[in-house]
Amino acid sequence: MDFDLIISNGILVTASEVLPAGLQIGIKDGIIACIGKDLPVSSTTKIIDCEGAYVTPGGVDSHVHLAQKNSPTGDGWETGSRSAIAGGTTTILAFASQSRDDASLYPVLEDYHRKSRGQSYCDYGFHFILTNPTDAILQTELPALAADHGITSVKLYMTYDAMKLSDRNILSVLLATRALGMTTMIHAESHDMIAHIIAGLERNSHTAPHFHALARPRIAEDEASYRAIALAELADAPVLIVHMSSEVAMSHVRDAQTRLLPIHAETCPHYLFLLSAALRPSPEDPFSGAKHVCSPPLRHHPSDLTALWRGLQNGTFTVLSSDHAPSSYASPLGKQLGMVDGIPRFSAIPNGLPGLETRLPLLFSQTPACLPPEQAKLSLPRFVELTASAPAALYGLAGRKGSLAPGADADLVVWFPGARGRRVVRQAGLHHGVDYTPFEGVGVGNWPRWTVLRGRVVWDADADVEGEGGGVVGEKGFGEYLKRGRGRVLVGRTGGVPRGMEVGEREFWL
Ligand code: URP
Ligand code: ZN
Ligand code: ZN
Ligand code: ZN
Asked: Residues where N6-carboxylysine occurs (predicted)?
């Protein structure tokens, strides 16, 4: 075969193993054609010499907010997707968000297609956020949208006035999505606990950014996570609890899994690397803590960080996503919305952090590729599984994305050999459309040297494209919309009997 590109002299890492050195990847027409040795080179074959570095699948980031209506200074498609490839992520799943007054999902989808079409540097798909799940949407639109447009997942909120669903509505959605084999993502925080605490804090004038963490305590995440699991158990439907930040909430997932319920969980780099102390004012800027406002909030205790790392190691978490949901800081419509006439009001700060570009390097830094084995927190295959293969499988892209296997899209990251990729994360070196990173000053052990999307080099760290010692060499608009199939991890029902119910009881009302 005449290969377009051969990736040579790398150490290939899959979700199950680190392959022996000496293997090459042969790429033809954007697809991995074969993995082998001494592949034939023609006059038109390009070769990438990895110089012994690791090669991993392109990242799949399954939780990304771009150009969302409610986020005027958030990241957009061009800049967000550009930052994705600069950080080794070749596929993103972003949200098409229904407003309460949207009676149909079709105009919502068209709106998000219009914003992303021709803009993306990486491949992408959508999840729907449902805020008004009418019978017509659940019974008629979702099945058609899954079949015709490949949208096979939804996200539901248990908090935020503009998005929250009642438990009863959540049950209706779960019963509809389980019939379709769709994945339901749930943002689990107790709305009423939080609303009550915020009112009390405001009454007492405790409105600075760091009170945000106090307003959304771990028990609010804990209670709602358990409730989401109970609803899933009652409906016999699989769910994934998104962006989990704390140990007790995570332990409910672990407990549900030991009872063989299809409960999955996601966490994000900021919950693994940062603590709520970051919400405190800096000497130069009393409002700087606003940069770290996200929900659930960063937690107080290092024990939560330790617990979450354990959850990544032992399989409690299925995926690791960025929850890239930033707002600019120094903009009157961004984080500064929480500063009114010089008085801070944390409850008005838009929630969410940037993290699309830094997700892979931060995690890769904790593998034996960058640390002595006894200090590494994740094995290399587990890194691949959490950041690429599992999200691809979970969201209906298995076989195509997230794996270094013949037949899959040739999406991959070539890292730097040895310590040559070491960097300190700086806002100035990032490619997103917002004005800060919460990881400013954090050292990473490596950075993608090349990112390849469907056989095309789209990021080349050594190309001096922008005069900054690194560059995006892909093209805006090269990213394609992905029609997804059914998820492979979260499918089917358990057929089990919910705890506390009798056999056959549910059949009276289902
Ligand atoms: O703080 C966050 N995560 N805001 C973004 C929206 C969400 O809930 O994922
Ligand atoms: Zn959320
Ligand atoms: Zn989110
Ligand atoms: Zn650049």
From this structure: 155
ipTM of this predicted complex?
0.92
Q: Reduce the DSSP state of residue 486 to 3 states and report it.
A: coil
DSSP class per residue in 334-387? TGGGGEETTEE-GGGSPP-B--TTTHHHHHHTTSTTTS-TTT-SS-HHHHHIII
Residue 174 near residue 232 (C-beta atoms within 8 A): yes
Backbone angles phi, psi at 164, to 5 degrees: -55, 140
Asked if 410 and 31 touch (Cβ cutoff 8 Å), the reply is yes
pLDDT band at 499 (very low <50, low <70, confident <90, very high): confident
Cα gap 389→402, rounded to integer Å:
4
Q: Could you list the beta-strand ranges (E) of 123-234.
A: 123-129, 153-157, 183-187
d(CA 438, CA 59): 20
H-helix or E-strand spanning residue 47: strand 46-49
- Structure-block tokens of residue 86: 């600069």
Average pLDDT, integer, range 296-313 = 97
Asked if residue 170 has its Cβ within 6 Å of ligand 1, the reply is no
Cα(230)–Cα(236) distance, integer angstroms: 9
Determine if ligand 1 sits within 6 Å of the CB of residue 400. no
* Crossing angle between the packed helical segments 142-149 and 106-116, to the nearest 10 degrees: 30
On the question of a cis peptide bond just before residue 332, with omega within 30 degrees of 0, the verdict is: no
Ligand 1 lined by 276 (C-beta under 6 Å): no
* pTM confidence score: 0.97
